[in-house]
Design a protein that fits this description.
The complex is a heterodimer of chains A (267) and B (245). Chain A has 267 residues and is mainly alpha-helical. Chain A is built from 10 helices and no strands. In chain A, helix 4 runs parallel beside helix 7, helix 7 crosses helix 9 and helix 9 packs antiparallel against helix 10. With 245 residues, chain B is α/β, with parallel strands linked by helices. In chain B, the strands form 2 sheets. In chain B, strands 6-7-8-3-9-10 form a 6-stranded mixed sheet, sandwiched between helices. The chains are: A mainly alpha (267), B alpha/beta (245). At the A-B interface, helix 5 and helix 6 of A face helix 2 and helix 3 of B.
Chain lengths: 267, 245
């Protein structure tokens, strides 16, 4: 609606009108992401993936994120133990600190925080890169060379992001547990064997699988949002900045919503 | 070579091309001129099928491209090389990979032959030794040259150049025009060039077409354009401040 038309709106209807406009905008974005996802599924039948692009993105998105994910997870593991320490000491329950830390990290904290880190680093970078390609006609150049940008450019990125968030989540889980072990030993004087006894006894494969399943879902969410906002950039360089902001916000909201429902379903 | 018949196109509710009929002959440098926002770049995208006209037909090498999807357009696009206004070089690829890209994707050439073609193209655009650099490491003029090397690498019979001298100084602009002309002569292609720098472009163009507000005002030889009786064409070609534009 134009500013001129907006000024004609009766005062009492301004708020409902803006709310309606926002809902329509969100619906349009969700619809656009759905269409993009459907187009990518269509291009998977049969899959024609550029191996060089896939390898390049796997390296760029995965290898270069290992350090930041591992260091984050190491401290997260330690923080979980620091938060739990007063209660554990009060109830003389140091023997179950391995279970408590492992349960919290595998089921919730590690996949969620690693996904948010991944979205901030890889997703934002992906949106900026695709947005820059759009505003500098690089996507039109691909089409002019008879190359489908979705097959050549987007599909390898989506696959790389899902694969690498899955792999980084495993790395993060392991590192977070190491962080918890170090912290439990330093703060609660819980030795390695005591920590691992309760961890191995009370944590089962399903706890680990929940972490893995969530990471795959989060990877899909981050990849679709970051690619969608990158591909729909408008307005030159400032538009790229806005798209990165929108992609990070949308991915974070999407990850939390997905986490809520997946936790409920997988509980 | 390229034939447009009554082409009209609407973008965001406004007509940006109105009933344009134009024939671009083979083996020549064809200048497409006009003031800003006259529809030149849009017409380029229509010629390559990147934009579909709302009305009218486009023929490339005798074949209508109306209604063709991207897959069906592939063999036609293999006949067209294109230099984009923003260079459109792939930032994550080296100069070598950028020039080799259409050769690898469109033709099943052995790597040795691709290496030879890339080396020859770089020599041709006076950038030997630049193959390992990335586009962000190049100046504007160097990017244009790499763009020209990529647009001409596949030896396409039609090459479209969108503002090949935008942002360049007069000396480098003339060098680019000379390069476009030399390439056209060497390969016998149909080179279509958009430029706002009419003075430089007309030194190498054989034919000229002028667009204004989406309408074709003039199409003919460069000599005819320079003595056109159409006031707007005369004003634009000679860079006059007085006139209808």
């Amino acid at each position: 609606m134009t500013e001129e038309a907006r000024s004609d709106t009766p005062f009492g209807l301004i708020v409902p009108e803006r709310m309606g406009s926002a809902v329509l905008g969100i619906a349009a974005e969700l619809g656009g992401m759905g269409v993009l996802a459907a187009q990518l599924v269509r291009r998977m039948l049969p899959p024609k993936i550029d191996r060089y692009e896939l390898t390049r993105n796997l390296y760029k998105m995965g290898n270069k994120s290992v350090g930041i994910v591992a260091s984050t997870a190491l401290f997260v593991g330690g923080i979980v133990v620091i938060q739990a320490a007063p209660l554990v000491v009060r109830f003389s329950a140091t023997a179950i600190i391995g279970w408590a830390a492992g349960f919290a990290m595998l089921r919730e904290v590690a996949p969620l925080l690693i996904a948010l880190m991944f979205s901030g680093r890889v997703g934002a970078n992906n949106t900026a890169e695709l947005g820059t390609m759009v505003v500098t006609d690089q996507l039109d150049a691909l089409r002019a060379l008879a190359i489908d940008p979705l097959s050549y450019l987007i599909l390898p990125r989506v696959i790389a992001m899902i694969t690498m968030l899955f792999a980084l989540n495993i790395v993060g889980d392991l590192t977070a547990i190491i962080g918890a072990i170090i912290s439990a030993n330093a703060l609660l004087d819980v030795d390695f064997s005591l920590f691992m006894d309760s961890f191995l006894e009370m944590i089962d494969a399903w706890d680990f699988m929940q972490s893995v399943i969530k990471s795959i879902g989060f990877g899909l969410m981050i990849s679709i949002t970051s690619c969608y906002f990158g591909l729909t950039v408008k307005g030159g360089a400032p538009g790229v900045g806005r798209a990165v902001n929108s992609a990070v916000v949308a991915a974070a909201i999407g990850v939390f919503v997905m986490d809520y429902f997946s936790t409920y379903i997988l509980k | 070579m390229i034939l447009l018949r009554n082409v009209s196109l609407r973008l965001k509710g406004a007509w940006v091309l109105r009933n344009v009929s134009l024939e671009v002959p083979p083996n020549n440098v064809f200048a497409l001129i006009g003031p800003g926002a006259s529809g030149k770049s849009v017409l380029f995208k229509v010629m390559t099928g990147l934009l579909k006209p709302d009305r009218g037909e486009v023929f490339i090498d005798g074949q209508s491209i109306a209604g063709l999807n991207d897959v069906e357009m592939a063999p036609i696009r293999a006949k067209i090389g294109m230099l984009f206004q923003n260079y459109a070089l792939f930032d994550h690829m080296t100069v070598y990979e950028n020039i080799a890209f259409p050769l690898r994707r469109l033709f099943n050439l052995p790597e040795e032959q691709i290496e030879q073609i890339v080396a020859e193209r770089l020599q041709r655009v006076s950038l030997p030794g630049f193959q390992d650099r990335y586009p962000p490491q190049l100046s504007g003029g160097q990017k244009k040259r790499v763009g020209i090397a990529r647009a001409t690498a596949q030896r396409a019979p039609i090459v479209l150049y969108d503002e090949p001298t935008a942002g360049l100084d007069p000396v480098n602009s003339q060098k680019i025009y000379d390069l476009v002309r030399d390439e056209q002569r060497a390969q016998g292609t149909c080179a279509v060039v958009i430029s706002s720098d009419v003075g430089g472009l007309l030194t190498v163009a054989d034919h000229v077409a002028m667009l204004h507000r989406g309408e074709l005002l003039f199409a003919g030889t460069t000599a005819h354009a320079q003595r056109s009786g159409i006031a707007a064409v005369n004003q634009f070609v000679h860079g006059l401040t007085e006139g209808p534009l």
